[in-house]
Amino acid sequence: MTIDFKHGQSAHCENGATANLLRYHGVDISESMVFGIGAGLFFAYMPILRHNGMPTTTFRPLPGTIFKRAATALGIEICRQKFRDKEASMEALDRALAMGIPVGLQVGVFHLTYFPAPYRFHFNAHNIIVFGRQDGRYLISDPVMENVESLSRADLMRVRWAKGMFEPKGRMYYPVKVPAKIDLPGAIVRGIRKNCFDMLGIPFPFLGVRGIRHVARVMKKWPEKLGEKKASLYLGHFIRMQEEIGTGGGGFRFIYASFLQEASAVLDNSRLMALSRAMTENGDRWRDFAAIAGRIIKDRNSEHESYAAMSTILLEIADREHGIFTGLREAIK
Amino acid sequence: MKQEQVPQDDDNLMEGRTRELCYAVDEKGNYVKVLSCGWGPKNAALLQAWEQINEDVKAAYLSVKEGKASPLAFYMARSMFDVALLSAYTGIPKRKIRVHLDPEAFRNLDSVTLGKYAEVFDVPVGELVTLTEAVLAVPWKQAAVPTREDPRRDGDE
Lengths: 333, 157
Description:
Chain A has 333 residues and is α+β, with helices and mostly antiparallel strands. Chain A contains twelve helices and eight strands. Chain B is mainly α.
């Protein structure tokens, strides 16, 4: 049995799964729109919180946040379930499918058989949608894959019960109530306002624009403080967070620029269009930064200038983002 | 990023299974979605991570061969498990896993425990206990690590 579900590829799994589920329920909004309404743009650099022995760097809020914010802002009621028992989690999924409901699942990618092997790390906050069963296999719409995939029952159960950080514990979710009329302009304004606060207003040196400035300052000293090899490993980690599958390029900055473009049309606000352009240029600077980093990683050495050059770019980016979000706050007043 | 600038640097890291979606602007400045099969700097970062893992794997392999550690150490390195994560997957207490890292203790393991380990690492029990050189030859990892004779092209040039 299959549900007439349209698979759409997206850059990021969480926005993509949300957008695809909402589209099925008649709310036709894009991935960028979900991202913007969910206030998905962020930056955090937390030297105390280690990830593989390296400072945690992220360009987005905690997994699940974008989805939750977007659903709340749009007035959509979501059924979210977590389980204690593996079999129970599969039975609940089967029941939902039998009722013709496509279901979003949180899964780990390590045992995700159709995923390209070089990307199969122990990462547990991936999102997929199951929309039917065929020949004993579950049909999977994985937002980051080009085509529809499928998994056996055993394989699906395994990824739903991945262990480690962000354990999914069989988590599944689907919209249960969609309002007849969606207040898109209201949700957009709310999302932008929230994102302005996250980037500018958190009085903590590691978060938002302040976090970018902080990294810019410490990165300069990496080669002498950590040694050439470790410095390049730190850099590699940073670049992977910024550019790995899911960001749409430039640490989500291009997705956000695309959201601002759409928002400008919905709200009929030309200032948002100008800010979208500024955000695109800003994303290009993130790419320039990554290009230098890529050269250092590949050559296994750096003229120390390069770290200084990257630091300068990051400071410039911080200034740009400060300007953009200050402008956004004004634009939606 | 302009539409025509979306990089297509394929280092086969997606194994031809998929391409990733990027956001870029067309000549009128409107956002469009473009598929990309990779980007040099980002590929370099991912390859660097694997190179690091492969170093650990080789070191673990040698210490198993020298009798300093049990094959468990090798498979943990290869699949990037630490003791805590392996314990979470198998339900075997961390203290016991540390004991099983000793070759002597590992040889005396019962088949149920071995089965639990084999399942997590996706290998048959036979392969788990007899570590042959063949396990080192994970083709895509080996091929993916750049060598000096094979200067890889720059994504941004």
